[in-house]
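URGENT: need a sanity check before tomorrow's submission.

F., can you look over the N-acetylmuramic acid 6-phosphate etherase record below? I want to be sure the sequence and structure line up before it goes out.
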Amino acid sequence: MVRLTEQPSRYDDLEKKTVDELIRNINTENKIVALAIEKVLPEIGKLISAIERQLKNGGRMFYLGCGSGGRLAVLDVIELPNTYGIEKGIINVILAGGVQNLVFALEEKEDDEIEGWNSLQKENISPKDIVIGISASGITPFVLAALKKCRENGIPCGSIVNNPNSLISQYSDFPIEVITGPEFVTGSTRMKCGTAQKMIFDMISTTVLIRLGRVEGNRMVNARLINNKVVDRSVRMLMERNPQITDYEFAKEVIKKCGNVKKSEQYLKEQGWLSS
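Structure tokens as predicted:
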């Protein structure tokens, strides 16, 4: 298998370049990412539709990864309960070395062929769920071994890799191979590969949760009141969606009582302040 992610950079003598030259060239490489993703939008759509089906039928989604890709998945997933008001445990991450060790970057764990499947078993993984393996190289043992076990047990799988014709894709029902080419610093897949992974995570979580009814119009009507900024945003959202509510303090009181915009509107309808 050709590993484009390990091929030499298109640039050399980096230490001799000026700051302006370095950032201009990095930006040039970053422009490749969105175009590479555009080429695999149909595959991304198939994976998202599969996730939607599993979650609507009571299943869960698990990202499975290590290194930069695994850590980026953690960052995506931890935002979702507050942003969209979903329960924890619907969308999850199995990170090599454990999510609790996120900041320690236990890169050696990517060679562990047992931990991934063991961690999924501890979550009582079943064919109702779906697992998405993340690997820039497409051969990471931690991910590959777990996907093999998932296939043996009838658990649907997707994957996100950055090399063509990867082994991991062969054990995935919904493979995504987003080809971003050699990195600016040879082999540093936290760069374009990581950027591509983050962009795809955004697409997956945002689209799935819109499809599951967690957004109305273009607003986060189920966002939890985690700080003053979100309280103010929610109050203004409630007032904008319901122009008959003109008293900010009244709207704020209702928002704090109910917990989010969606629940506030339901409460106001029940009380006769809003028409059904």
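My own read: The chain has a mean pLDDT of 96. The chain is about 50% helix and 10% strand. If you see anything odd, call me.
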